[in-house]
Amino acid sequence: MPSHKSIRGIFSDRRRFYLSLLGAIAFIGVGIAVYWSYFKRNPSSISPSVSSTASETRPSGDRTTITASGSTSQSKVKLAHILKGDLSSFHSLAISQDGQTLVSSSDYSSVMVWNLGAGCTGKVCNPPTRTLPMYSISVYSVALSPNRQIVASGSWKDIKIWNLNEGELLRNISGHLGAVYTVGISPDGRTLASGSGDDEVKLWNLDTGKLLHTLSGHSEAVYTLAFSPDGQTLVTGSSDKTIKIWNLDSGCTSETCISSTHTLSGHTEDISSLTISPDGQTLVSASADQTIKIWDLPTATLVRTLSGHKGKVLSVAISPDGTMLASGGADQTIKLWQLNNGELLDTIPGHSDVVNAVAFKPDGRTLLSGSADKTIKIWQLQ
Description:
mainly beta, six-stranded mixed beta sheet, 36 strands, globular
C-alpha cells in the first residue's frame, strides 16, 4: 500500500505530471518556520459566482440529467448569524442531535466547539466555547457521537478521540499510512470509520481504539464516507472516481473479511462528499466534476444527475425530513435542491471563498456552511 500521495498537475498544454510528497514539508530559515501542505481536494482555481433564473430538465435515457443555473426563487433564505474563529479555512462541520453544539475542523491545528443555543448579538456570534489542539498542520474532518460526548478528528496519519465535555484527549489512534481525510461515527456510537490517503478505509472500536476491519478496494485516496441510518451499510468515495458500498452486517470477524458489494461509477473526477437520506433509500454524491449524483441505495442504481455549480462540488447534506438537498462548491455558492425530483430551489451567495462544508440542524430549517473565507454562516430557510 503506498505511503505517499501522488499529486496530479495540469499544464496549459494539457500535459500531466506527477510528483510524490510525504504530505507536509517543513523547513526553517532565519528563525521562520514555513509549513507547506498540499491538499488535493482543495480547488486550484475558483470560478466566479453565477446567478440566473433558468432551470432545465433534460431526459437522458432512463435516467434524468437536470441542469440548473441560478435560483428559481422558490425558497426564502436569510443570513441569521456568522461564526468567526481564527485565521483558518473551515473544512468540516458536525452538529449534535439536539442542535445546540457545533464542532468544526480547520487549518492551523484546531477543532472548535461552538454553542449554537446562545451567545449571538445581531449577526455576529461569540467565539467558540472550546478549542481542541490537534498538533497537526490541518484537521480534515470531524465527527460527533450521537450522545454528544465524543469527538473524533482526522489529520495527518492519525485520529484523535476527545471527551467533548471535558476537552480531554482520550486516545490517539494510529494505523493509516497517509492523511486521514474523513471520519465518521456509526449511529449506535460504537464504531469509528476512517478514510485515508493510503487508499484504505478502517473500522475501529470507538471505546477502545482497537482496529476491527480494514476495507481495501479503492485504488486512490478515500476522501469521504457515510454510514446508513441503521449502521449496517458504509459508503465510501475516492479520488479514483468511484463510490463503494460495504455491508457491515456480514458477521465476519477477521480484519480483512469485508469486501464491497457494489462499485458505483459515473463521476469523472474525485468524489468529494457523500450523504444518505434519513430513510436509508437515497445516496447523494458530490464530485470535482461539478455534478451531484442521486442514487437509489438499495439497488445501487443512478436516479439522476444535477448540474448547476460552476466549479467543484465540495459538500452535500440532506435535510432531516429527507425533502431538501444542500450543496456547497468552489463557485462560492450554496444551492438548495428538491431531493425527490432534483429541482433547484435556490442559489445562496454570501461567501467570498470556496464552501467546503454544509450541514443542517435537526430542525430542518437552519443550514450551516463552512468556508475557506474563514467564516461559518448560519442560514434560516423560510
